[in-house]
Amino acid sequence: MKLTGRLKTGNRIVIPDEVNPESIVVHLTPYGSWQELYVSSVDYGKYINVLSGSGNNVDCFYIVEAEELSQS
User: Fold this and answer.
1) Cα 69 from chain centre
2) What values do phi and psi take at 37, rounded to 5?
3) Which pLDDT score is estimated for 72?
4) Has residue 72 been placed in a domain?
5) Domain count along the chain
6) Which helix or strand (DSSP H or E) is residue 40 part of?
């Protein structure tokens, strides 16, 4: 599964339910000016929280890659 988008007015990426939270990989690309961006947490395997080291608002593009949960 690959999920792409832009964070501009918040700092939370919503993850689909069918994703294995242990397999999540996040790529962040700042927009406009340099930002020290990092993933602060993955809440309940449903949300990825992104923060800026400077405390400024987050403005970035993201790519989330993860494995889908196998259906038994």
Assistant:
1) 18
2) -95, 145
3) 55
4) no
5) 1
6) strand 37-43
Tell me whether residue 71 is in a domain.
Answer: no
Is 20 inside any structural domain?
A: yes
Residues 22, 59, 33, 37, Cα dihedral to 10°: -30
Beta-carbon neighbour count of residue 69 at 10 Å?
15
The model's pTM: 0.90
3-class DSSP assignment, residue 63? strand
Host domain of residue 37 = 2-65
| 8 is a domain residue | yes
Given this model, what pLDDT does residue 47 score?
A: 96
The string of pLDDT tens digits covering residues 37-69 is 999 999 988 999 999 999 989 999 999 999 998
Nearest of 11, 7, 9 to residue 51 by alpha carbon? 11
Q: Please state, in angstroms and rounded to a whole number, the distance separating the CA atoms of residues 11 and 14.
A: 10
**DSSP-derived 3-state class of residue 21:** helix
